[in-house]
Amino acid sequence: MKTQHATPLRWLTLLGTIVTQFALGSVYTWSLFNDPLADKLHQPVSRVAFAFGLLSLTLALASSVAGRFQDRFGVRNVTLGAGVLLGVGFCLTAYAGNLTMLWISAGLLVGFADGIGYLMTLSNCVKWFPERKGVISACAIGAYGLGSLGFKYINSRLLAQYSLETTFILWGLIAMAMVIAGGLAMWDAPAQRVDKTWAARDFSLAQCMRIPQYWLLALMFLTACMSGLYVIGVAKDIGESLVRLTPAVAANAVTIIAAANLGGRLVLGVLSDRMPRIRVVSLAQVISLFGMALLLFVHLSPSLFFMAIACVAFSFGGTITVYPSLVSDFFGLNNLTKNYGVIYLGFGVGSIIGSIVASLFGGFIVTFQLILVLLVISLVISLTLHQPDEKIRLLLNEATGK
Fold it and tell me: How many CB atoms are located within 10 Å of the residue 400 CB?
């Protein structure tokens, strides 16, 4: 690719990525559909809501293999395919007549399409801007977060005017059109030049998985996702049961979380280009620890409750924004989609661990205590973690027989 063409192509790719991420973020409006689907299928809301848990897990699993699809077919073709599959998944959801069909269409198909498109387009866009990885991550992941807000109003309006089935079909067509339009504007990022110094070397996924730093980063990411996703998922219930808020007041937690989440993505994403990214993650962990300590050790007033969940949401949004660039700092840009993909499995695992712990060991408090311990461990890791050095290379060479 000639240098004179690279600049306009990367800005086109950024625009396409933002449009695509906005559409993919629409899946986080799923809670709007739990009650209507429960009424239609004559099932408890908890079983209907399981579709979103399955979607989150499938999204993470799909993200881990997105790099292989990109290597074979290119970012544009894979994005177009993800857009079509997303539309098909929503349209099939419209006609789901039982829970199994709902879980397959919304949980598996929509989750797979969303996961393939999310991480691949994000990583590809970051590769186009190696000099400002933090800002670009903030733009792309911020668009994903804005998609959940934008489609909240779009889908609410559709539900008010049309049937449930028609709403799913229109949602699918709108999201599919946006992803396809975004995909048509995308180009594969050129391979990054790798100099001969060890610190700048690109690692393959197989090499990463032999390095302790990789798994420590994965543990930190899992902890951030577990804390953020659990608190986000039960914030309204926490407000009602622990703070004795009315349902109407507790519902304000949704808006506060959305604003704090978006703020964390933008603020910490931009900050990560101005200071070491591992220190930005440490800052996010301290903020999350403060919020979790409020939930555990302080008699909560409404204002303190909203402050606590805002801290957790801010930290979660910022962490998932900084992490792609952080992984590239440690292991290089060229294999970022694959290397970050396995770490991103922590998103899916973290989305269910909190709920499992709460159901097995007695609710919010035990889960908060576990999260607090993991956050302390993660903070210690982030404050002591260093990039792979020459000693790691020698160990890798011995392991691979080079």
Answer: 10
Choose the final residue of a domain: 119, 151, 184.
Answer: 184
Q: Average pLDDT in the 141-156 region?
A: 87
CA gyration radius for the chain?
A: 21
Do 344 and 63 contact (CB within 8 A), yes or no?
A: yes
pTM, entire model: 0.79
120 and 248 in a single domain? The answer is no
Q: Give CA 218 to chain center in angstroms.
A: 14
**Using one digit for the tens of pLDDT, what is the confidence trace for 335-381?**
888 898 899 888 888 877 887 888 788 778 888 999 999 999 999 99
Q: Does residue 206 lie within any of the structural domains?
A: yes
d(CA 48, CA 55): 12
What number of other Cβ atoms are within 10 A of residue 70's Cβ? 24
Residue 247 exposed, middle or buried by CB count within 10 Å (0-12, 13-18, 19+):
exposed
43-57, 118-132, 152-166, 261-275: which range is least confident on average? 43-57
- pLDDT tops 80 at residue 2: no
- Is the residue at 233 inside a domain? yes
Same structural domain, 235 and 362:
yes
In this predicted model, what pLDDT tens digit does every residue of 100-112 receive, in sequence order?
999 999 999 999 9
Separation between Cα atoms, residue 107 and residue 151, nearest integer Å? 18
* Helix H or strand E encompassing 83: helix 75-94
How confident is the model over 301-326, as pLDDT tens digits?
999 999 999 999 999 999 988 998 89
Identity of the amino acid at 9: L
Distance CA 247, CA 290 (A): 25
Q: Which amino acid is at 61?
A: L
96 dihedral zone (left: phi>0; alpha: psi -120 to 50; beta): beta
pLDDT, mean of residues 227-231? 86
Tell whether 1 is covered by a domain: no
Asked if 168 contacts 91 with a C-beta cutoff of 8 angstroms, the reply is: yes
Euclidean distance between the first and the last CA atom of the chain, given in angstroms as a whole number:
33
Domain interval for residue 206: 199-397
Separation in Å, CA 242 to CA 130, 304, 397: 45, 12, 54
Number of neighbouring beta carbons within 10 Å of residue 95: 11
Q: Which two tokens stand for residue 315?
A: 């930290």
